[in-house]
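Protocol step 4 of 6: structure prediction from sequence.
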Amino acid sequence: MTQAFFSSRVVTPEGVRPAAVIVDQERIQDVREPGAVPRTAQLHQLGDRVLLPGLVDSHVHVNEPGRTEWEGFATATRAAAAGGYTTLIDMPLNCLPETTTVAALEAKREAAAGQCHIDWAPWAGLTGQNTHHLAPLAAAGVAGYKCFLVDPGIAGLVMVERQDLEAALPTLARTGLPLLVHAELAEHLYTDGGADDWSNYDTWLRSRPDESELAAIRMLIELCRRYRFRLHIVHLATAQALEPLALARAEGLPITVETCPHYLHFVAEEIPAGATLFKCAPPIRSRANREALWQGLRDGIIDMIVTDHSPCPPSMKQGDFRQAWGGIASLSVALPVIWTEMRQRGLPLEHLVHWMSTQPAKLAGLEGRKGAIAAGYDADLVVFDPDAQITLSVADLHNRHPVSPYLGEKLHGRVLATFVRGVAVFKDGSFADLPIGREQRRQEKLTAI
């Protein structure tokens, strides 16, 4: 059945305007003036509520198969739908087996089948031992590769050294796929400190200094210059890296950068002792650093905002900042968190779509299908009230374990409905009974961001 979504505020690639979005056979057929609608269309009258393209999160840890007690496809995609996301790209670690071979990829696909409320795609892992698997994984349809320059605490996705990268990069460059790098160098980390008070957040912050990120990014820029592979820096936390990244981009190197809601909302000065819900790596840094990251977004040095949704059972968040698991779950809350910060800075809705939908879709090779309200794109749509005021509660969290450092935050913005390929998967606080999410394969022709 043909559908028509009317709003006085439709966020299109040409700007925010009154429009009717015509949907048929899972795709957007046209974006028209509000009066030009097929007589037989099912009408969705949205008034002045905003119609956004579905958000795309290119940094999510689903953890299934193998660690579904942390999070799984059913709960992660449910939380994502409630947060306005219509596509997520799943990271290759925290699941068992880690996605470093085609066999492991097929195990993940089997685990996801029939469980997903939204669409998804997989990243693969790069280790020092699986270079011969890179080309087969590309042929099998992964969106790209992820690696760590520090120990991620996961046995099956060990950290890589520079020599491991140099051995793999010629093969990786030939695939044309991006390499996503956790950019901290272990030699700059301070982890001894037996006499230090690890209940104090400042101890955790000092243990992972800006220099650990900065040195890693300088090394990666050098390698990118030499091997000309698509480099993507995940979860940038230090603003000190913005200048070298800007210079590398000006040089024409194929580098993209992401940051996360927790780095754009929280500040180190306000994290109390023992508050391990805030633990992540790299760590949340200072207020001045936060503002510099926002400037990096404005300047186009940072391309996108993604969640790094990394949940775990509540028991794993206990202890001090050295013992607790590092990760923040935010799929269901990232949109109001970021919109609240954007309102305070006078930033428009078009920027939100660019950072949280269009650019992550391009990174994952889904450009032309995901990330915009335009003819030919999937009918992934979000009805959003940007003026709603909320105090975040457990009822707003829909992932497996309802723990979050965002609880109690006073925010602006509420997702009223989320449509995946024209089907309502979340509406007025309820979820569709039938999960309709599908795996999305990258476009054959890779495009630069």
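Step 5 (inspection) to follow. The first strand starts at residue 3 and ends at 12.
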